[in-house]
Amino acid sequence: MSFTKFTRLLVYGYFLKLKADKIVLIAPEGSRKIYDGLLIEGAGKLSFKALWKMIDEGKTLVMKFGKDYTGLGGFQTPLLKQLKVYRSRRKLEIASKILQASLLNKAWLLDRLELFEEADKLREFLDKFVSGEKVLDLMGVEAEATRIYYEAIRKVIPKPYVFKGRTRRPPKDHVSAALGLANTWLYNICLEEILLRKLDPRIGVLHVATRDRISLALDIAEEFKPVIVDTVVIGLFKIRGFNIETDFRYKGESVLLSKRGSAKLEKAFKHRLNIKKEGLTLREHIGRQVERFLEAITKDKPYIPFKA
């Protein structure tokens, strides 16, 4: 499968224009080549003729403004395919494969942590993902497997850190605080890759579709959480890489990372994204998974999940 290539630009003072009927992107450091699409963040100028040319050539343009994204070019066809899958049996098939991959990747991490018995317990859930009749059935199985997974992780978190079990909004312990922040970064990466491939992030197969929820990004992230987020977070706690006084903030029952703690986590997270597997970085694998999802819904190909 060919890998779609995008130009990413974070800069102030860019100019996207049309010159001699060619799209030209000028940045302070010089001109940049535009491949299959462009993700641009910052401030600059956009020529209407250049935008129209990009749409005419089938290129994707995604612009990021703070935490918000907007996209131009060819989003209608994938959206119709997404809606068709969402209402069909294919939704259950793809959801099952995503959860099976997530489970196997969790077991992979437990094996690396030498929690072999717990890893084997997780693998016993595989058949239940195949036999589910509704996505809700699959989510029930996933919840039980995840409970066992986090109970296992508690065994390797050293003192003085606290991990009572996964808590959210707000996180109530050190590990949950780190997991929550790193998961947010992962969701944003998945969201970028989804928008660049002209998919609607609100329509997934596993998480319920709502107006304001990036359900497809949450779906894709399930396969990568154990390999990227959990690996980084558990690794930092195992080497006692956080200081509980200076790397965390405490307010009532909530526990959050401080600026210093966030910086430590971000550095390790970015390093992990650049680890290569089968010739691609883990960051690039996220993009490839979105392409696999796109091919599954537009070309009726089997969905091939990511496995560690």
What does it look like?
The chain is α+β, with helices and mostly antiparallel strands and 308 residues long. The chain folds into two domains: 6-74, Ribosomal Protein L15, Chain: K, domain 2; 78-298, Four Helix Bundle (Hemerythrin (Met), subunit A). Helix content is 51%, strand content 18%. The protein has ten helices and ten strands. Helix 3 (90-112) packs parallel to helix 8, helix 4 (116-123) runs antiparallel to helix 6 and helix 8 (215-238) crosses helix 9 (259-273).
Quick summary:
The chain is α+β, with helices and mostly antiparallel strands and 308 residues long.
SSE layout:
Elements: E1 6-19, E2 22-27, E3 30-32, E4 37-46, H1 48-56, E5 60-65, E6 68-72, H2 76-86, H3 90-112, H4 116-123, H5 126-131, H6 135-154, H7 174-196, H8 215-238, E7 248-251, E8 254-257, H9 259-273, E9 276-277, E10 280-281, H10 282-298
Parallel strand pairs: 1-4, 4-5
Antiparallel strand pairs: 1-2, 2-3, 5-6, 7-8, 9-10
